[in-house]
Amino acid sequence: MGGTLDKNQGNRVMRINRDDCTGLVIDIQEKLFPHMDQKEALLKKNLILLEGLQVMEVPVLLTEQYPKGLGQTLEQVRLVLENFNPVEKIAFSCCDESAFRVELSRAAGTDEFKAISHLVK
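Below the sequence we write its predicted structure tokens.
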């Protein structure tokens, strides 16, 4: 959710501050994944990011869109996450799902309004 942009020899570099970040994995599921554009690159980059977030001990929230119909999160993603506890959702937008808002505010250590407003900035 957060981080800072630093100048580094004229380039903009994103620095992640684990104390004000939350990783989000949204709907990388068994029946959705085959239809995603550039799915192999997407999976590879997500696994690299998730492994890094785990090393840095950054909390990760994960959603599953209607898992009864669309399946679980891909096994490769589940295996990377130490604490796999997906937020099930029926609403298309995570922000329309109250369980997601509660988990996001808990991870962010703030109330729902501040967590959501920071997410959509």
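The first strand starts at residue 4 and ends at 8.
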